[in-house]
Design a protein that fits this description.
A hairpin with a 6-residue loop joins β2 and β3. This protein has 13 helices and four strands. The chain has a single domain, classed as ABC transporter involved in vitamin B12 uptake, BtuC, CATH 1.10.3470. 71% of the residues lie in helices and 3% in strands. It is a multi-pass membrane protein. Keywords: Cell membrane, Membrane, Sugar transport, Transmembrane, Transmembrane helix, Transport.
């Protein structure tokens, strides 16, 4: 049971951060289906930093540099979505899909080039091992191991709740996602707010990416993918009704089912059941389909999400 709690905490941290990123983007009016790709870019940047940091660096320096690299990579990749959807008014679904496809291809090429350079031509793999750097994040206790990623996830969740409910910025952001023409009429820069929403989503999804591959993945290597975690986070966001506190509870629910695939062999009655590990791996996606099938009709998405803003339209 302790192992299940450990995996649930880290998996929920990933889903919470990425789903919150999607929430801020969609609250501004931009559908961000590229969360999966942004996670890949963030994971790749963070893993490369963990590989490159010297062994004698303080743990705090490794943690800060890794998170900053992931966040910056996530924000830079989210700019692709922002420019295409806001400036060029491109179809937001297609742009997000393109970013997801680009991320996998780009990560493969970049990691192969990275490994080839570091090994002087003897390693052409697309796998990046970061075991040494990851050790800086582990917090050992007598009964269960935690890590700093969970602390970061909790801090960012609290910050998101405060920003969402207590700041003028969030009020203006939500106005741009509900009725951008009305927001513009009172002096709110809709383009700037939508850029802010997409960049926040990149920041959070980038950090979510490095948390996924460094902790939730449990294999201590990155091989250009995050196994659909970005799409699962979209389901969490919808089930959470685009509200941070509901997203948190939804993420915990989904994380429990996701964690079962890692720990079911350690839970006696689950291991005794005639169910293969593949079925446990499918659980979070099956649950997401069932939940969305029963709740999607009652979902209230921002009214202007997915609609390019035309300043001249009324």
């Amino acid at each position: 049971m302790a192992l299940l709690i450990q995996y649930t905490l880290i998996s929920s941290a990933v889903l919470i951060l990425v789903a919150l990123g999607g929430m801020f983007s969609e609250r501004s009016g931009i559908i961000n289906l590229g969360l999966e790709g942004i996670m890949v870019f963030g994971a790749m940047a963070g893993a490369m930093v963990m590989v490159l940091v010297p062994e004698n660096w303080p743990k705090a320096a490794i943690i800060v540099c890794t998170l900053c690299a992931a966040a910056i990579a996530g924000m830079l990749s989210s700019l692709l979505i922002a420019v295409a959807c806001i400036n060029f008014k491109a179809d937001q679904t297609l742009v997000g899909t393109a970013v997801n496809m680009l991320a996998t291809a780009a990560a493969t090429v970049i990691i192969k080039a990275f490994n080839t350079t570091r090994s002087h031509g003897s390693d052409f793999s697309a796998k990046l091992d970061y075991n040494r750097g990851y050790k800086a994040f582990i917090i050992h206790t007598s009964k269960i191991d935690f890590n700093w990623f969970e602390v970061v996830g909790l801090v960012l969740l609290v910050a998101a709740i405060v920003v969402f409910y207590k700041t003028k910025f969030a009020l203006r952001l939500r106005a741009c996602g509900e009725h951008p023409q009305a927001a513009d009429s009172v002096g709110i820069n809709v383009y700037a707010m939508r850029y802010a929403g997409v960049l926040i989503s990149g920041f959070l999804a980038g950090i979510g990416g490095i948390i996924y591959i460094a902790a939730a993945n449990s294999t201590w290597h990155f091989d250009y993918g995050v196994a659909g975690a970005g799409f699962l986070a979209l389901a969490v966001m919808i089930f959470g009704q685009w509200k941070p506190e509901r997203i948190a509870w939804s993420a915990i629910l989904f994380a429990v089912f996701r964690s079962l695939s890692n720990v079911y062999t350690a839970i006696g009655f689950l291991h005794a059941l005639p169910i293969s590990g593949t079925v446990y791996n499918m659980f979070p996606y099956i649950v997401s389909l069932i939940v969305l099938a029963f709740t999607s009709q009652n979902s209230r998405a921002p009214k202007a999400e997915g609609i390019p803003y035309d300043k001249g339209a009324r």
